[in-house]
Amino acid sequence: xxxxxxxxxxxxxxxxxxxxxxxxxxxxxxxxxxxxxxxxxxxxxxxxxxxxxxxxxxxxxxxxxxxxxxxxxxxxxxxxxxxxxxxxxxxxxxxxxxxxxxxxxxxxxxxxxxxxxxxxxxxxxxxxxxxxxxxxxxxxxxxxxxxxxxxxxxxxxxxxxxxxxxxxxxxxxxxxxxxxxxxxxxxxxxxxxxxxxxxxxxxxxxxxxxxxxxxxxxxxxxxxxxxxxxxxxxxxxxxxxxxxxxxxxxxxxxxxxxxxxxxxxxxxxxxxxxxxxxxxxxxxxxxxxxxxxxxxxxxxxxxxxxxxxxxxxxxxxxxxxxxxxxxxxxxxxxxxxxxxxxxxxxxxxxxxxxxxxxxxxxxxxxxxxxxxxxxxxxxxxxxxxxxxxxxxxxxxxxxxxxxxxxxxxxxxxxxxxxxxxxxxxxxxxxxxxxxxx
Amino acid sequence: xxxxxxxxxxxxxxxxxxxxxxxxxxxxxxxxxxxxxxxxxxxxxxxxxxxxxxxxxxxxxxxxxxxxxxxxxxxxxxxxxxxxxxxxxxxxxxxxxxxxxxxxxxxxxxxxxxxxxxxxxxxxxxxxxxxxxxxxxxxxxxxxxxxxxxxxxxxxxxxxxxxxxxxxxxxxxxxxxxxxxxxxxxxxxxxxxxxxxxxxxxxxxxxxxxxxxxxxxxxxxxxxxxxxxxxxxxxxxxxxxxxxxxxxxxxxxxxxxxxxxxxxxxxxxxxxxxxxxxxxxxxxxxxxxxxxxxxxxxxxxxxxxxxxxxxxxxxxxxxxxxxxxxxxxxxxxxxxxxxxxxxxxxxxxxxxxxxxxxxxxxxxxxxxxxxxxxxxxxxxxxxxxxxxxxxxxxxxxxxxxxxxxxxxxxxxxxxxxxxxxxxxxxxxxxxxxxxxx
Lengths: 437, 437
Fold this sequence. Notes:
Two copies of one chain form a homodimer.
Chain A lengths: L3 H8 L11 H17 L3 E5 L6 E6 L7 E7 L19 E3 L2 E3 L3 H13 L9 E7 L9 H7 L1 H4 L3 E4 L11 E6 L1 E10 L5 E2 H4 L6 H10 L23 H6 L5 H8 L12 H6 L3 E10 L8 E2 L2 E10 L5 H15 L5 E10 L2 E2 L5 H14 L4 E5 L4 H10 L3 E3 L15 E3 H19 L3
Parallel strand pairs in A: 3-6, 3-7, 7-17, 8-16
Antiparallel strand pairs in A: 1-2, 2-6, 4-5, 5-18, 8-15, 9-13, 9-14, 10-12, 11-13
């Protein structure tokens, strides 16, 4: 497939946005993409930000034709743990119809489908691209950019592929996303590391304290988050909406995860928990001696990262404040707690049957031979809420990845059939749009 | 002082037992010490082990005279972080009556006092030395050596100086040590790392599970260890024994640790908690993303190390089994738990008023001008229980260091007054012993 070669090039750039050591690589990815868009007739602008540049590009053919704004991101998650990768994460490798690399599915492969689809496109549609390099760190620069440039970004449809199909060979349209609140907690006890023999019995132990704190964040029996007020704004879900959803193969999900139970909030089905309920997960923890063997230390410091997925109508700032207040309340005496708010994102709910959604449904059915299923997603794309607010245009969330793509994990991959059919779907969508629906 | 010059030589040998790069240096320290003992009339034997040699030496003057066995170690901790040292750690430097060097107090300085004390000793006492080079890595070779050579090691008294005086200018006799049980716990959830958006709500989270587990190991309110049966064998401490103890300056301890409270088991004083009560401390924890910024991962694995300090009559193997059984009981469903037992050591309690302790008390009082205080210690010296069992001889723990000697830390030091008075005390002890007490 001719679209594959450039994608392999794109994937070989280690554009890890969270790691300052990769700052130049992130920029390199932006410049690479700009070049590909210029090759397709786009005018490009690189907007500098305090961190990584925002790439804006436009190909305006006809002021009377409809305008599509494509959003995507060219940055990727860190690749660790490296030792679990079968090929180096930035040496993209094709095996059995899939390309393996960090960013293959999230989001370079999906974004690339949108760029590749524009080659020799018949029909007149104006296309704009808004591509950022800070999605994996919470889009700090993009949100103000959108607010500031709403004129420039004006469009009739917003297209975003940064998600997954519900299952293989199952065309999928997504009408909801969860939001995010991410915090880091650092806990200090004594002024220095202590010998556990000489001081065990009188010394604060920040690791033990983290245990007490974590156990109070989520109830072990019910799976409910214990932060006061957290559920106050959670919107109930209608039976009618639930009837839209495809059935979930729980057995297959258990098999995929290699687990015997799917733990979660009591009283809700797995799909409800994934799509319509807030969740809380610690994402990292550290403290004391992590090497081989034993060291009898009581560490002076320890810490953890914790994030919450949010649903309409929760607000990330409000939730972060609720969590912070609760953390300070449950911090045991004798410890100093430092809390960093790392990033947030608002939840999104769109109309599953807006006109562009109906067009995309048609294109999907023609390409895949079956109508799409309608889903929400558990993940977060912070800019979506912002684009909805700023542009008042319907958003089409067309996930081209798959649930087993290993996002944010070793051996991330992207199925080449999804690349191929994704490109075909988008080309058909543009044709239908140019024809006036 | 003529005893100082050789000690500076001893301290200049970087005998870091844990670092393979220093293997020859460790051997050099053993050979150096053997030479000093031969100069004093000892016959020496270097026993090879898989790692570092055990030095045995004896000076047997009279089969009818009492026999003393001195234990010590010639290996030292690694010196890092080097940048925090005021002099290079293996360039021993004397400032304000103290010698600064790695190993100054632990244990070369204290061990050297025992060797120096034997110069031209009047009175007939048989003396044996058992000196290892693996104390800082858990004495793997010494424990089997003691069991195998109990005939050779036979003695009427065991003398050990590898500890600290309770406070400066405060002669101290120690009659108890805590034991140790050290475990590592690894927890697995899903088969791979997962995206917290895509799977938050159905995925096991080993970090969260560790929180629940840690919170059940120790009660936050009472500070009690919650492992069933753990306190069953804990021997109560008599009021009579507590009256032996020096008063603890809690304010000074809080200042030293930089804390406002000294957390610990409810209902017991700090000294009781440090010396006579078992404690449990997680010593390390890891899982998920530990780097800068945010990563929205639900890790497949996480783990922690936890150790317990034990008191008479707890047994490390039994305690490790109790902890292991309890950990398996409180492991939430959906997680796989792997438990490693890292190492253990038995607690020790000796008779504070055994005949050799009374002799040493007399010697201390004559040299320091005040009677000794009686302490236990919170730390563990695994070989002591082994020597007690193998030799059935009373053990005298004569700490010559000080609590602020910076053991295992930068700027380790040894007060020269402790070297001088330590040598004088030991010489007086041998005289009293030769005189029949």
